[in-house]
Input
Amino acid sequence: MSLDIDVIDLVARAEASGIHAPSKLFLPLTLFEKRLLIDFDVVDSTGKTLSLVTSDEDSHAALAVILATADSLGVDPSGFSAGMVAKLYDIVRNSPDPVDAAIIANASSVEQRQYVSGWNLRNASRAEEIAWRAVFAQPNFAGRVAEFTTHYMPIVSIPAEPSPQVIKYRTVESELITDTSGWTWGERIGWDRVYFAVATPSIGRARREHVRIDAPRGVFAVSADVRTVTGEAEQGPLTPQTSGDTFLGRVTPERALVYTQGRTESGGHEVVVGFRPAVTGFRTPAVLGALFSALILLAGAAGQWVRGFLGTIAEHSAEPAVALLIVIPSLLAAYLVREEEHEIRSKLLAIPRYFVGGTSVLTLIAAIAMIAQFSGHTLAYVWVVCGGLCFLTLCFLAVVCWRIARSHQAVVERSYLQFSKSIEEW
Output
């Protein structure tokens, strides 16, 4: 993420707030969940590493944001008791209980957030309880507190020099895919792209923002969109609305790039990237395995129907035939799964792999029918049904792999072009 900072504008804001001729400025970069980051770097335009303020300092800044939110809603924060201010600081400073974090993540209204136990004001007077409940009844205030309950705000300091500055930060996180219930069947079988939303709260915090999202290994990017969620979802699904602002984007198979400028609102932004699995290393063994199974079974069924070929093999040399039927498809199916494969690719190719595994099951059924010495035409029927299903699997795999390969080629062909799209509000 690259942020183009208008230092002159920041100095003017600082002086308007009563800070005369500041020598350095403190800039909140983004919002991160309250957890240790796996990999996080912040540098300036020269590549020099920038240090972050301490947790206590950014917690005080978050508390100031919450109090300013109350003031903007017509609630004078100077009327808050020391216990109320201390409780708000405790909320922004400490990590939330997992149960509270889940409630906040799933809440769609202020009423649902009343069950957050970490927000309870303990040992409070009657007047404090009334004031506490009244301010939390404000959706914007409750939303701001919820934001800083589960997230923290990393802040860097920059010199107040009258020239534009660029700050770049990079983070690498492992995103676990625990819920695929919302995926359509087209996404599950690899027919359609799957969308992943990456929170980018830094958008709107600078004069210009440049976001780069790298595709995981074994997956390629197809599309990129920017959206922002506004307001409370009281009931029913949210529908996208055009915000009137636009962004520039560029998509290559390896990464998705987004460029925004002039956003007057920060927070709540997401970059939605469409991904599809690369079929390199999957297509050849999958198609060959299904083709081999279909040819063997259909040819065997034809031979049994005409000359009783399978029955003769079963009587004189069943063991080599069974080995041929079972071992080779099993080896091809085993080759399809790699231990070092990224989880997203594993999920996206799960059902196609099940189909490949199904061809091994079908050859096993055919082998069992031959060992059991089914009568002539019955054995032929079993083999032709199994062979037909293997052929349908072959067609399915070939079409899906072709569609994915065509999508990859389309991305490659337009990867040198940039596009302009509207930012959607949800």
